[in-house]
Specification:
Oligomer: single chain
CATH topology of the largest domain: TIM Barrel
Number of strands: 17
CATH superfamily of the largest domain: Queuine tRNA-ribosyltransferase-like
Length: 382
């Protein structure tokens, strides 16, 4: 078994006018070209999309799973028996797992937080569980994700600066304990795993700076920025990302958790972010919202009833070219399950196109011009 070691990140190009950059990081399950969007497979499944479609139609390079949900169901014993999440869900590409901290604070009805960890009740059956920094590392060893996250507290955007500073100090201490546990343990399934600390601090630049500085000192292979897109204004998000960009090492990837809209991706790539995840493409797809190269389409609108144009003339993948807007409107109004598959494929493929286009523009030295052209186009409502 190879020793637990961080992956290599190659920074290939940086934009002259913004902080955008293009790179690639290497995992034992394959390379991930950045910037990159990760489809969310919370429970070991990207909703309505098969692993084969993720590979062949979406051409996803990495997906995300969630420690909280996988811990509760199917559970660590099942995942160990299956040989880890890759084998369990028949996905042979890289996987990143969130530590579950956000879900504990957003889903658990009753929870008790202290220095040791967090005790919570399952949203499934009310049973009581405890997450500690050490236990979330052990759980992610059982899951076998390529990139693991530390346990953190994710406070809401409206907490006081005093609370944000106290909370972040504990998150940093938890990160230090996660790092120790990570080095004390070994991967289970023959591939290496990396661990990312998570910058917290709510909407307070000074606290975010303190968090980033403390976590950068841990010298881990990459870093996440959490606690954004939780109710704050977009401009506040961008301000916080800029603060973190000024502190986190340029030679390591940055992952902005739970973000976001096409505009959010463009603006945060311009501020130095490499990795994103969000349920928006698949969740909005199931509700009838399509992201396309022409703009954002509410496919339920009557204007699409007899529209026989392809779903997205600007994309060359299966869902975009095979089906028409009129047909998709019929499917969603008829509540046909096929709609969820086609719409999810379209939205995920659009997000893949978006990050690919940004990456190509960065490598070609034209990202700033690309941003000016495409930001309004992908944000318009049709």
């Amino acid at each position: 078994m190879p020793a637990a070691a961080p992956f290599r990140f190659d920074l290939l190009a940086e934009d002259a006018e913004t902080r955008a950059r293009a790179g690639v990081f290497h995992t034992d399950h394959g390379p991930v070209e950045t910037p990159r969007f990760m489809p969310v497979g919370t429970l070991g499944s990207v909703k309505a999309v098969s692993p084969r479609a993720l590979k062949e139609d979406v051409r996803a390079q990495i997906i995300l799973g969630n420690t909280y949900h996988l811990y509760l169901r199917p559970g660590r014993e099942v995942l160990r028996s299956a040989g880890g999440l890759h084998r369990f869900m028949a996905w042979n590409g890289p996987i990143l797992t969130d530590s579950g901290g956000f879900q504990v604070f957003s889903l658990a009805e009753l929870r008790t937080l202290n220095e040791e960890g967090v005790r919570f009740q399952s949203h499934l059956d009310g049973s009581t569980h405890t997450f500690t920094p050490e236990s979330v590392i052990d759980t992610q060893r059982d899951i076998g994700s390529d990139v693991m996250m530390v346990l953190d507290e994710c406070p809401p955007a409206d907490v006081s600066e005093t609370y944000a500073r106290t909370s972040n100090a504990m998150t940093v201490r938890w990160a230090e304990r996660c790092v120790r546990r990570f080095h004390e343990t070994e991967p289970r399934y023959g591939h290496r795993q990396a661990l990312f600390p998570i910058v917290q601090g709510a909407v307070y630049p000074a606290v975010r700076r303190e968090s980033a500085e403390a976590l950068a000192a841990l010298d881990m292979p990459g870093y996440a920025i959490g606690g954004l897109s939780v109710g704050e204004a977009a401009e506040t998000m961008y301000e916080i990302v800029e603060v973190c960009d000024g502190v986190l090492p340029r030679t390591k990837p940055r992952y902005l958790m739970g973000v976001g809209t096409p505009a959010n991706l463009i603006e945060n790539v311009a501020r130095g972010i490499d990795l994103f995840d969000c349920v928006m493409p698949t969740r909005n797809a199931r509700n009838g919202m399509l992201f396309t190269t022409e703009g954002i389409v509410n496919i339920k609108n009557a204007k699409w009833k007899t529209c026989w144009e392809p779903v997205d003339p600007g994309l060359d993948h299966y869902a975009a070219q095979t089906f028409t807007k009129g047909y998709l409107r019929h499917l969603t109004l008829a509540n046909e399950p096929l709609f969820m598959e086609i719409a999810s494929l379209q939205n995920l493929a659009f997000y893949r196109w978006l990050v690919d286009a940004m990456r190509a523009a960065i490598l070609d030295g034209r990202f700033a011009a690309w941003r000016r052209e495409w930001l309004p186009r992908v944000s318009q409502r049709l």
